[in-house]
């Protein structure tokens, strides 16, 4: 019964996102999140019936739906006055959402196929050695996901009438993905063995540290791919990433099967990294053709290349002392280059103001 409420809630939230009302969205989502967990606890004070707990959760979603609807009326009162079904929009909406559905089906297939094959070709124990670092490092996707959630409506709103602004947002989005994720990925890759050893023991570290390094590198690449993927969907071309995924899927399946048979979970991690590399390069190439984002060979770009190539080093060094020197040396280099070349004046002033607020 709640499915129509949940699905149409997504549509109402999309209206607010189009108007950049993310503050309101976050408040409502906090309310939903709190009562999703608090609701069953309240129900347990009166009954232990699962039926009434589900009813309560459904009522919460109805309340949230009403809150979203009221806010939609506030941002655009014409929605309330001119409520009607436009049959001419059905076909383009179905076409757009159809390709998005393809991406939402094929994407999870690529995401979970590796663990399915590891279980089928190796063992359940091997899945544990692979899935544990995977589940940890892929939590970093919350960063690019939060960013593209804001950029999606911005791309839709600016691409036709303000293409230069759309291009600027795309480039700035990639910049901040790199700034937020690079130091985290650097430390994960450098201290993968030590971290796994401290957390789960020597045996786990020996089996999973290389997997963690390869997956971390793949997460960095996949995080960059969030931007062109969202850009293409935002400008009304979700068919492009969907077709890319459909073409990649059989190659991914075959290469993953071969790699697992020959190299075990390390082979699976390597293929996962490579598919993300290929996918990211293809999508960036296509977006570059659309917005002509030519990158000049500046010192800042050379610095990015140096920092990315430096991620090869964690695969080579084993001495903890050298790892500490390398990681903190690269972190210092990253901070200097970021402050000197990556951040614009207004971004620096914004960051300084936030630091002053924290100090107060």
SS-based class: mainly alpha
Tell how many strands the DSSP assignment holds: 0
Average residue pLDDT: 88
Cα-based radius of gyration, to the nearest Å = 23 Å
End-to-end Cα distance, whole Å, is 49 Å
Order of helices and strands: HHHHHHHHHHHHHH
Give the biggest sheet: none
Explain what the structure shows:
The protein has about 350 residues and is mostly helical. The chain has helices spanning about 5-20, 20-45, 50-75, 80, 90-120, 125-135, 140-160, 165-190, 190-200, 200-235, 240-290, 300-310, 320-340, 345-360. α12 (about 300-310) runs antiparallel to α13 (about 320-340). The mean pLDDT is about 90.
Topology, element by element:
Elements: H1 3-18, H2 22-44, H3 50-75, H4 78-81, H5 90-121, H6 124-137, H7 142-158, H8 163-190, H9 192-200, H10 202-234, H11 239-291, H12 299-309, H13 320-342, H14 345-359
Essential attributes:
single chain, 360 residues, mainly alpha, 14 helices, 84% helix, globular
What's a concise summary of this model?
The chain is an all-alpha fold and 360 residues long. Helices cover 84% and strands 0% of the residues.
């Amino acid at each position: 019964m709640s499915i129509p409420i949940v699905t149409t809630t997504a549509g109402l939230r999309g209206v607010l996102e189009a108007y950049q009302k993310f503050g309101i969205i976050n408040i409502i989502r906090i309310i939903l999140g709190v009562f999703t967990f608090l609701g069953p606890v309240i129900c347990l004070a009166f009954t232990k019936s699962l039926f009434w707990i589900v009813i309560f959760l459904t009522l919460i979603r109805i309340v949230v739906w009403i809150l979203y609807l009221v806010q939609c009326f506030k941002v655009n009162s014409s929605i309330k006055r001119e409520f009607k079904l436009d049959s001419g929009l059905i076909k383009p909406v179905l076409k757009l959402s159809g390709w998005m559905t393809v991406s939402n089906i094929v994407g999870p297939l690529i995401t979970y196929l590796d663990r399915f094959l590891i279980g089928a070709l190796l063992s359940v124990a091997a899945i544990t050695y692979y899935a544990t670092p995977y589940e940890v490092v892929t939590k970093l996707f919350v960063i690019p996901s939060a960013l593209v959630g804001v950029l999606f409506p911005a791309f839709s709103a600016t691409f036709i009438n303000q293409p230069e602004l759309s291009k600027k947002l795309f480039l700035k989005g990639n910049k901040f993905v790199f700034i937020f994720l690079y130091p985290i990925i650097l430390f994960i890759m450098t201290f993968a063995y030590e971290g796994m050893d401290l957390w789960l023991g020597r045996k786990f570290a020996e089996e999973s540290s290389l997997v963690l390094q390869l997956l971390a590198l793949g997460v960095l690449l996949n995080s960059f791919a969030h931007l062109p993927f969202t850009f293409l969907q935002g400008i009304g071309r979700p068919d492009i990433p969907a077709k890319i995924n459909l073409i990649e899927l059989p190659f991914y399946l075959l290469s993953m099967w071969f790699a697992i048979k020959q190299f075990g979970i390390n082979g699976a991690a390597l293929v996962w990294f490579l598919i993300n590399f290929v996918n990211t390069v293809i999508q960036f190439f296509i977006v570059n053709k659309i917005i002509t984002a030519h990158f000049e060979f500046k010192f800042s770009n050379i610095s990015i290349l140096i920092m990315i190539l430096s991620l090869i080093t964690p695969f080579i060094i084993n001495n903890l002392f050298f790892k500490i020197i390398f990681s903190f040396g690269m972190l210092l280099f990253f901070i200097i280059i970021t402050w000197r070349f990556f951040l614009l004046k207004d971004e620096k002033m914004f960051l300084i103001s936030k630091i002053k607020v924290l100090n107060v």
